[in-house]
Amino acid sequence: MFGKSLLPAVFGQRGLLSGREEEHPFLSLQREMNRLFDDFFRGAGMPSLFEGEGGRFYPSVDVRDAEGEIIVQAELPGMDDKDIEVLLTDNALTIKGEKKEEKEDKGKGYYHMERTFGAFSRTIPLPGGVDTKKAEAKFKKGVLTISLPKTEEAKAKVKKIAVKSE
What distance in Å separates the CA atoms of residue 139 and residue 79, rounded to the nearest whole number? Predict the structure, then answer.
């Protein structure tokens, strides 16, 4: 009907990218927009609009280099410690988990049931010099705190540099 296709040449006949048949560019755009709105509303203290959609969950993670150790904190509200897995290698920390929630409301003449879920996996690269044998993880009131002590060698390599004003 039309003289020229509106789809770029890299698209196949069905409008899907060649080589990645399952990924349509508009689906990718929609996911990215959902993530942007989700991040915006999460930062405003509002409940997430897309949390749990498609099995995705994005916990907030803070990493700080304290004296003698690296502290990692992850906000995991509504989760139990049994739903969280922490894996540590010489150069990376991985936090995995799955959030499941089920709400049921019964009343006169109605029944409402809602299920949400979200799985996540965050890998944080670590600098050399972490003593993996002394690492600890604690979970309290929805916050996972992981303490990664530095080796004595790593502590000794720290050099303070004086700052001079001109």
Answer: 10
Measured CA to CA, the distance from residue 124 to residue 59 in angstroms comes to 13
Confidence of residue 127 (pLDDT cuts 50, 70, 90): confident
Is the pTM of the predicted complex or chain greater than 0.70? no
In the chain, where are the structural domains located?
A: 10-50, 58-155
Residue 4 corresponds to which tokens in the numbers above? Answer: 């020229």
Question: What CATH number labels 58-155?
Answer: 2.60.40.790
